[in-house]
Structure formats: C-alpha cells, structure tokens
Design brief:
This protein is mostly helical. The protein contains 7 helices and no strands.
C-alpha cells in the first residue's frame, strides 16, 4: 500500500515515453534496453503481486497460524503459493509489454534488432523483409508466452484446482 501512489502514477506512463531519457542517461545500447524493460514490467508485476497477495483467503492464513506456523512459514507455504497464479498472469502481460517495448525501442534508436531491421528495410521499401520482421515479432512473442505458460504449469500445478 505504501508504494501504491508511485505505482499508480507510473503505470499509465507508456514505456516508450521513457526512451529519450534512457538514451540520454545510458546511451544507445543494451543497458538502456534492460532498464527500459525493467521499468515496463515493474508496475505490471507490482500490481499482479499485490492482487495475488490480497486474494489469499484469510482463512488459510488463520488455519496455518492455528497449526503453529510462524510468519516466515506462512509467507513461504501459504501466501506465495496462493499468489503465484496471479503473479504468473502478471508476468505474461509484462512479457508481452516488454517484447513490444523492446521492438518499438529498436524502431526508434538501436544498433541491431528486429525493429532496426524493419526500419532499414522500410527505408529501402523492402516490403518482404518488413513483413517477415512483423511475422517474426509475432512468432517470438507467442513463443515467449508459451514458455511462460509451461513454466507456470510446472511451478504452479495446483492452479485451477480446488
């Protein structure tokens, strides 16, 4: 709750609006992309984690306390496992935003990457390369989402089960 004003202030700011600041502070390179992606995902993940934690049934926490669990055990054995489905949903959304952000950042200013490839191809009116780039963006984004789903299935096998 303490960070809610900061999260709600930064959440609506499009990550692409931060590109000029990242270029000024960190130059055109990988470091600026990493920090930009971190900031793009941070607010989404914070909201997902908060939603996951607040969605934990208080009865489960009380039951753990009545069985003699301490605060650390409740965090590790009750709160985190019950929050993981929401956190993974946030991770899927954040990864989609991050993938779109990195490609868009490469369209604006980059030395390499799919966005840069599309921009160079567009300058020379190489429509086929632009279309292949767009298809690659979609395929890679889909693969990332499938990877996160598989990781979720492996780490959270109880999701959706009563």
């Amino acid at each position: 709750g303490w960070f809610d004003p900061i999260v709600e202030f930064m959440r609506p700011v499009p990550p692409l609006a931060l590109i000029p600041l990242m270029i000024i502070w960190f130059g055109i390179g990988e470091m600026s992309k990493v920090i930009l992606l971190f900031l793009a995902a941070l607010w989404i993940m914070a909201i997902a984690a908060r939603s996951g934690v607040s969605g934990v049934a208080i009865a489960k926490v009380h039951a753990a306390y009545s069985l003699g669990a301490n605060k650390s055990q409740i965090l590790r054995k009750v709160i985190i496992p019950n929050s993981l489905p929401e956190i993974f949903t946030g991770a899927r959304v954040a990864m989609g935003v991050c993938w779109g952000t990195v490609v868009a950042a490469e369209l604006v200013a980059a030395e390499k990457g799919l966005g840069m490839m599309i921009m160079v191809a567009a300058k020379f009116q190489l429509t086929d390369i632009v279309i292949v780039g767009i298809i690659l963006i979609g395929v890679i984004g889909f693969a990332i989402d499938i990877g996160i789903r598989k990781l979720e299935d492996w780490l959270v096998p109880w999701k959706g089960k009563v």
